[in-house]
Design goal:
about 210 residues, alpha/beta, four-stranded parallel beta sheet
Length: about 210
């Protein structure tokens, strides 16, 4: 006896939903069925919102963060930001957590990823050239490397530090790295060796 299956249109929708980060086969199936069986206009509204975002949202040519087509970058155009400090992050989504802290008021530069030779991501695949040209124009006194702390992130940070080192000899530019150590509320017994090492190395006077 032939088993019941979803129509090809639903299968195609499930396949596309599975391409989203964090969405597995079962979740994609539930989402697809929910969208199609919902009696409201959820599916239509979602399709319209996706189409609008795809057409209207682009990357700022300077910092790489999201901006609406025809509108100035909400970060680069902000008059109250410290233009002497630039925080380098891997992805546009990394900007939001830093903004939520309320502790940073400078500008940003999105690399578009991190070095990963195994994934065929090399320096020329990232927005490193744009960063160099941006710094060469002057006016920046500090670069904060806010890339990940895993192997690829460390490799990216070291490459950027070496790549930008010549600029520190000709301009008043300082290269810093986000401090890494014990998480808030965490005890020593839960910390791994690398975290403890960084916490000790990055200690400061009280």
């Amino acid at each position: 006896m032939r088993k019941a299956e979803y129509p090809d249109e639903i299968k195609a929708l499930v396949l596309q939903l599975k391409r989203l980060p964090g969405v597995g086969p079962r979740s994609a199936e539930r989402l697809a069925v929910s969208l199609l069986t919902n009696k409201s206009s959820v599916a239509t509204d979602l399709a319209r919102a996706l189409d609008t975002a795809a057409r209207q949202v682009t990357a700022c040519p300077v910092c790489g963060f999201f901006q609406s087509t025809g509108q100035p970058c909400p970060l680069c155009d902000a008059p109250d930001r410290d233009r002497g400090v630039v925080c380098v992050v891997e992805h546009p989504t990394d900007v939001i957590p830093l903004e939520r802290t309320g502790a940073y008021h400078g500008l940003y530069h999105v690399l578009g990823g991190r070095l990963s030779p195994l994934d065929n991501i090399h320096p020329e695949n990232l927005r490193i050239g744009e960063l160099t040209r941006r710094l060469s124009s002057g006016g920046v006194r500090e670069i904060i490397l806010a890339v990940g702390s895993d192997v690829e992130g460390e490799a990216t940070a070291h490459y950027l530090a070496d790549h930008l080192a010549p600029l520190t000899a000709t301009t008043p530019l300082t290269i810093t790295r986000l401090a890494q150590g014990l998480p808030a509320g965490g005890g020593l017994e839960h910390a791994d060796d690398l975290t403890l090492h960084r916490a000790l190395s990055g200690r400061r006077a009280l």
